[in-house]
């Protein structure tokens, strides 16, 4: 930042320009870096947030001074023409106001990643589990075909899909509706049309307007599952006001049911816990579907607050304690229990909430277990960086069977052009062994 401050008001030229994603806003502002040394460089040409490195070497290209407009078709890794302009500081960011708009010279190939190699084999030792925040998903959503294609094709029709941000049947209309059966059945129908699999779903309706997100939308976590491979173990659904608990066995008081501990999850999604068995009876496992408090209220890396504010971190710390303790109770009864926790944790793996969650729960990070390179651990683009907000953690009995090709982040959205984007998050998929004993 001292470097950018030293250039404030100066006329500079950036050569070897690389775009760090789609335009940052409707004004066409664009995050870039030039032909200088960078850290966190991923294989797509983006810069990934890693421990103690949030990529301060980037800069925003603002509105051109001659009235031309920056390209609105940029994608992650695109090469742009050289940029000459004035460096300034505004709204908490350093930017360059170009004399004229740059243009896109070339784009990365292929345009989208190949489908994941991970596939369910329908056996307890090789079921596939995916996680996908599908961003304010509503009935009749124009993104249904794209999301369904991602799940069916790019994720290989997983056995179980953890989904987040499922809105109720009336979407963001604030009319007291909380049921999401139309929302979820529209997606499972689209999946069946593509795969022939009669996908089913489970969720628990929230209290109206109590779980955050768009007012009236009542977003919640849910599971999609292939009933030919898995089913709920002794189903006993809880309600919006029923707090789940671990019972002797271990088993669940409600299946599925929500973890709740007011005020820890006030105006936030409650984790959805379920216990499952494979249809052949050879596997039994627990899942915890997470969508913790957002980073809303955070400040920019280059802004005035020092250190920058990580919005919502106190809430996420408390949620880590509660979620982790719930899982720890399962493993205290059965150290060999198969437990999978996945979702939008809204935090980086090296920051206190997730470090605390791992320590308390006893689960292991699949990125680490499978050896995904640090710079390839991203599921989201925000500002100048690729970031990982979505994670999958598993119990030791599951982790010991995980190989290097058993876990993938599938960058169908971070790499995509605007018209091909289904969500602001990328999905993740894993092949896991949940066999008994």
Characterize the overall form: globular
- In which range does the helix fraction lie? 10-25%
Low-confidence stretches: none
Compute the number of helices. Answer: 7
Largest sheet strand order: 1-6-7-4-3-2-5-8
Radius of gyration: 22 Å
| Overall strand count | 25
Report how far the terminal alpha carbons are from each other. Answer: 54 Å
Rounded mean pLDDT score: 97
Largest sheet: 8 strands, mixed
Strand residues, percent: 25-35%
Question: Mind explaining what this structure looks like?
Answer:
This protein is α+β, with helices and mostly antiparallel strands. Helix content is 16%, strand content 26%. The chain has helices at residues 2-6, 144-154, 181-195, 313-333, 352-361, 366-370, 396-399; strands at 11-14, 17-19, 30-33, 59-61, 79-80, 83-90, 93-98, 104-106, 127-137, 160-166, 200-203, 220-225, 230-232, 246-247, 251-252, 257-258, 272-278, 284-291, 339-344, 364-365, 380-382, 385-387, 390-394, 407-409, 428-432. The strands form five sheets. An eight-stranded mixed beta sheet has the order 1-6-7-4-3-2-5-8, with no helix packed on it. It is globular, with a radius of gyration of 22 Å.
